Amino acid sequence: MPGVTGDHYFTAEPGTAARPREVEFTVAGRDYTLTSAGGVFSAARLDPGTAVLLRKADLPAPDAAGDLLDLGCGFGPIACVLAGSAPAATVWAVDVNERARALAAANAERVGAADRVWVAAPDDVPADVTFAQLWSNPPIRIGKEGLHELLLRWLPRLAPDGVAWLVVARHLGGDSLHRWLTEQGWQVGRHASQKGYRVLRVTR
Ligand SMILES: C[S@@+](CC[C@H](N)C(=O)[O-])C[C@H]1O[C@@H](n2cnc3c(N)ncnc32)[C@H](O)[C@@H]1O
């Protein structure tokens, strides 16, 4: 079939053509024009789940400081919105996909936040950094085991009073993820539910 390759959006080095595209969206009254591309998640638009997350979760206050994490940043829409909302914070944009990281870095520069958005592969985030907030539209397609491993790796890096915001489609297991997180000892609230997506608020 033309156009079909073995790539997934979480492939480390996508082989598909990049074909850059402009993605425009508005969050909290601020307009963003970012670049996405083939071989990354949501190549041509803001993902509807990410849109629900950014609309429903509590964006960081303008005076929020410290380190914020966009886990699985893709082309970086969440990281750019966090940087736009909290000019005093440092934002870590983490992804396994090299092309996604390059796009996220370019987009951070586009929104004038290159000096406080740190784009990194997972292993390159210094071990002593803890996060005031963790934001993620997590990679459900890596499978339940991979997803659980990912969350068990990063949630414990929340600061004691830190908060994590996750968005998961109900039909992709939003409610079972909620249950599993609760079983792991996290406080989990269904903060919002819209268009089939659950926005979960997770704290210690
Ligand atoms: C559902 S996409 C969300 C992308 C972006 N945040 C957005 O909203 O458009 C999940 C992202 O997680 C990344 N990912 C997959 N496995 C990962 C891992 N182990 N560590 C970090 N990121 C990972 C994928 O490459 C993908 O970009």
Automatic annotation (TrEMBL):
Keyword Repeat: no
Domain (Methyltransferase small) ranges: 32-200
Claim: Methyltransferase is one of the keywords in the record: yes
GO molecular function: S-adenosylmethionine-dependent methyltransferase activity
SUPFAM superfamilies documented for this protein: S-adenosyl-L-methionine-dependent methyltransferases (SSF53335)
InterPro entries to which the protein is assigned, alphabetical: RsmC/RlmG, SAM-dependent_MTases_sf, Small_mtfrase_dom
Keyword annotations from UniProtKB, A to Z: Methyltransferase, Transferase
Any one GO BP annotation for this protein: methylation
PANTHER family, A to Z: RIBOSOMAL RNA SMALL SUBUNIT METHYLTRANSFERASE C
Protein name: 16S rRNA m(2)G 1207 methyltransferase
Species the sequence originates in: Micromonospora carbonacea
Highest classification ranks of the organism: Bacteria, Bacillati, Actinomycetota, Actinomycetes, Micromonosporales
